[in-house]
Amino acid sequence: MKTRSATRSRAPGSDPRGAGNAGSPPVRSPAQARQLVRHTLAALDPLPPAQVEDLLLVTSELVTNAHRHGGGVTGFGIGIGRDRVTVSVSDASGEAPLYERGEGLRPGGYGWPIVLRLCREVTVDAGPDGKTIHAAVTVDR
Fold it and tell me: What's the rounded mean pLDDT across residues 11-39?
């Protein structure tokens, strides 16, 4: 897994790898994002259920974190590759995610470590207008 953070001047929600949400309704909740991912995956050859579940969990965590820490989702995309599916989520915060595990009974702090654990590669493109996180999950196709 590779994690990279870079500053770029581009609009939040634009995905330099071509995964975007042009022409589709905006994603407002983790449930909507999961439904979009399920719908996109249904058009592909079937994936092992564990890989689908990994993609859905990563999607939920990224969208939840965008709402909780980034002021909401400003862009959402799915990129399909030969051996990976990349979920891209943009928000209005230019701050990179923090790796803070929850301690004791304190809620939260588990989403970002889960994303990093399940993904082959995670990149964060941050700028003054927000950030886009691209999270790639390995798939067998």
Answer: 67
